[in-house]
Structure formats: C-alpha cells, structure tokens
Amino acid sequence: MTRLYAEQHRILQDKFDTRRMADRLEELACKTFLDEGDKAFIEAADMFFLATTDDSSRPTVSYKGGDPGFVKVAAANSLSFPIYDGNGMFLSAGNVSANPNVGMLFISFERPHRLRLQGTASISQDAKVLAEHPGADLVVSVTLTDVFPNCPRYVHRYQKVSGSRYVPQSGCEAPIAEWKRIDIVQDALPARDVARVERAGLIGAEEWLQRVKSGDPNA
Predict the structure, then answer these.
(1) Model-level pTM?
(2) Where are the domains of the chain?
(3) What is the pLDDT of residue 101?
(4) What is the tally of helices (H) and strands (E) in the chain?
(5) Distances (CA, A) of 42 to 13, 75, 136, 149
(6) What is the CATH number of domain 25-150?
C-alpha cells in the first residue's frame, strides 16, 4: 500500500529501477505528522514555496516570506500562515478556495535542508485568527497529510543578506510597495492604498524600472 505513488510514478520507478528505493523512502522517511525537529525548522523559516491548483487543474507556485515564526505550527498535523498584501491577484488564496490540496516546500539555503509538506487548506478572515498574524489580509490553515524531507544535495548554499523591510511588524505600518506608487497604476489602486500613495508621492514607470534593473532592494 502507498499514499504517495500511483501508476504514473511506478512506470518511471520501474524504468529507472528505483521502485525498491522509493518504497523504502516512503517507509522510513514519509510521515503524516511533524516531529519536534520539523516544528523547529518550520518556525525558524522566513520563507517557503506554496503550490496550489485551480478548479481547472492549472498549477501555480508562490513564494511566501515573512519574519521567522510567520508560519505557526498549531499541532503535529496542522499549521497556519498569513497572506500579506500583494499584487491583488490572489492566485494562491483563490486556488485554495477552489481546490484545497496544497504543497509546501521549506528550504534552508545555508545548512542546506529541505522539508516537503502536503495537505488540505482552508482560508480564514476571522478577526481572532488574523490577530495571530499581524498584517495579514487572510490566514491559511493547513491540515497535513504527508511530511517528508528531501535530499539537500542539489541545494546551492547562499547566505541571507538582509530581511525585507516590507514584512509586517506588530504595532507599526509596513511601507507601501514602491510599484503601487507608479503613475500608470493609480486608477487601479485599491481604495485602502490611495491615501498612502498620496503621502509617499508618485513615481514614473521608467524610474521604477531603472531602480529594479539597478538592483535597488527597495524598488
């Protein structure tokens, strides 16, 4: 019996003679819960990648970042994370609303280390839940079905230079995204951003693009 593999996986495993290893890895490394080491790794993470699909099976992968602890482990089989202010497309959150099955990949580029999670997700706008994640527009809760480490041998080693100044902090307002100050998007801004842009001032699209190309971390 296997939770992870279907016929399409078995065809490739048999082609490359990896079925026995695949079964051994599922037996030894694949769990349905987080242990204390997993919990510590997740709650120390400042980023992860989220995979979702819409109701037409179209996938998307999104980077989610925050301060360490922005992903909260509620129990051995559940966790939650915030959806912060973004570009307004709500691709990940919208997908979760249509198809709750998600994948999450946590990576440390300094150790290196990888942890893959799969589960079913739900979205909350409850005030008490939002209060647990300062700055969140929405909170995603995930009930885990599969937890397993990935071999880190192909993870390149990088060092973190600095955190993002845009990550929400409790008790203070994060800076508005610079691209929201671009003149050509002003007529499409959400109402909540209009006054903030007026305070920060407009910038031209060419100026913003030059800043992006120059590697300005605040662009």
Answers:
(1) 0.93
(2) 25-150, 178-213
(3) 97
(4) 7, 7
(5) 30, 12, 19, 12
(6) 2.30.110.10
